[in-house]
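Pair request: fold both.
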Amino acid sequence: RTFLQNNRMSEEQYTDRLRDQYLTFALQKIFANGSIPDTQVAQFARSVAAARTIRLAVADESAFAGKVAVNDAELQKFYRANQKAYRQQQAVKYQYLLLSPKILAERESVSDAEIEAAYNAAKGSLKPTRRVSHILIEAPKSADAATREKARAEAEKIAAEAKAHPEQFAEIAKRSSQDVGSAANGGDLGEIAQDGKVGSKALEDAAFALNKGEVSGVVESDFGYHILRVTDIADVSLAAQKDSIRSSLQAKKAQQEYNTQREALSEAVFSARDKLQPAAQQFGLTVQTQNEWVTRANAGSLKIPAAVVEALLSGDVFSKKLNSAAINVDGETWFIRPTETRAESTETFEQAKSRVEERFKLAESRRLALEYAKNLQKELAVGNNPAVAWSPVVQVEPLKMRQVLSDDAYLAFMQAVPKNGKPAYAVLDLPIAPQLMEVQSIQTINNPEALANAKRQLAQEMGENLIQSYLESLAVTVKTEQGIEKVSGE
């Protein structure tokens, strides 16, 4: 009933959903139960699960850097093909003022008389609290007498140990408490008050009868048997609460002052449209500066609020370097003014030439390294024996390789199948560098369990493909209309 209520569903609707699900499962099972030849299963298992014995040779791009011919014609061609890489985003450097209740609170003075008056006003609602740790031996009320008696005896034994060594209570709790949530923290339950929220009056009464550091006897609750220790007692006297009350009164005064100053500061900032310093001096604030170019892309990493970024890069604030209106961010107010601006543009070839040349050399070095690896592959494929710096031989599994290779590299890896006792070769265009791979052998799978798993996986995939094809065929033959679904008023 709770599930149906939470999902706003009637029992009939839920039954219909189950019926549809079971129908889908049944169709899938029918489609998947087609005959799959053992040779196909073995081939499938070999491709997805059989380990390959391989070794690799890296085509080091740096070795080809000296062979890259550089001239302006090639650089300009490369620049035109990759012009997006030299596009500069709109950017700004800026100054800002920050008006914050937190900053104002530090300036507010609070007298002892104000603190005492606030304490007297709140004294009636101040409830003493205690930080409590416990050890629980579970024995719910529903347990039989023998079970509860056994649990109590265990609790009595632990209580005796804890009383004898109260300083070891946390270690005893980690070892003995059956309350998994608190046991890891030495039995710590946090602060509690005598307000009924603990869920057991007996526990509250026992906790508030202890002095700091004392350990209780065995206390019974609906959950079982507890041993308690009070680790701290909150002091609710005026002396103990004084600093907290002072901070609270400062924050309250600061919020009132903030609301007043915000309007006045807005007027001062607006009066001097192209400078923040006069308003800063009038209100005792500091003009702060951001000297790094800020774009929409890097603003997050610089921890600049989105509203501030939008104001910086918009309208007259950006184009004329004028002061912004007040910007509200998480209870604080910002005023900003750009000091330098940079419109969105594409660097010219001359401006970007040094970086164009650097990227061109890297791209050409990689192309030459890839070309070298492919030439080695061709030589090895026809039986030649070129000098290759191979890595040690290792075994790899296709499923694990699938997780680390791109689609193209994985396809090349899977297509390298040794034949007639001879290795197969593939070139993997990997991000770190092109690599030549030699596949020496592919393991044969004779494990019945592995073959059975492969058959189930293959059957499921074939079934899903058949169902998808069936649905696509229905979409062609059955006329459907797109529109707004009618919703009943029920």
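--- second member of the pair ---
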Amino acid sequence: MSRILVVDDDPEMLQVTKQWLEFEKHSVETSDTGIAGSRQLETGTYDLVLLDWDLPDINGIDILK
């Protein structure tokens, strides 16, 4: 089981992705803003991050930096 963070500002995409990953037995955390996702990355350890590049509050590339 992997621990996965999904960051996306589209609520429908966020929910569908979360449900699918949980169905596959992964532990999933979500964030609907780049700033909140960035904070989660600073405080948590994840095996995978699914990150929307075009977030309204901060660019996904800046989060990766």
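Observation on the second member. The beta strands are 3-7, 27-31, 48-51.
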